[in-house]
Design goal:
Keywords: Coiled coil. The chain is about 85% helix and about 0% strand. The protein has one domain. The radius of gyration is 24 Å and the shape is elongated. It is built from five helices and no strands. By secondary structure, the chain is mainly alpha-helical.
Length: about 140
């Protein structure tokens, strides 16, 4: 009788464990993470192009638009749990931060704007978004 109880107890533990594990996921897939960030990056490319186009006519508006996008993109990166894609997203985020900083400096002091730094920041942002696109197959 004790053996039967032990077997039932062990079987019960396994059954409960199986049910608990059913609710667990293996984490966010690469595809899910890519899909989550892809829309934001597409918006970033558009926002970047628009900010460059509008920087002469509305520099403060261009910076504000970039900072708004930066906030929403940062929130999206924070929500990613796939390590590979999160790292790539953080690289894009850092490149975007640098671009905004250099652009803001140029807007604040146009006579001393560092055009080489601005070009480098744009190129780095593009490099990082391309790395993301390559990893995600988009």
């Amino acid at each position: 009788m004790t053996t039967t109880r032990s077997i039932r107890a062990v079987a019960g533990v396994f059954a409960v464990s199986a049910l608990l594990l059913t609710g667990c996921t293996g984490g966010q897939s690469k595809e899910e993470a890519c899909t989550q960030l892809n829309t934001e990056l597409e918006d970033a490319q558009t926002e970047l192009q628009d900010s460059i186009s509008n920087i002469a006519s509305d520099p403060d508006g261009a910076i504000d638009a970039l900072e708004t996008f930066q906030g929403s993109f940062s929130d999206s990166v924070d929500d990613i749990s796939n390590d590979e894609i999160k790292d790539l997203g953080e690289n894009v985020e850092e490149a975007l931060d640098d671009y905004i900083e250099v652009t803001s400096d140029a807007v604040d002091d146009p006579e001393n704007a560092d055009s080489a730094a601005l070009t480098d920041a744009i190129e780095e942002f593009q490099t990082q978004t391309e790395a993301f696109s390559e990893a995600c197959g988009s």
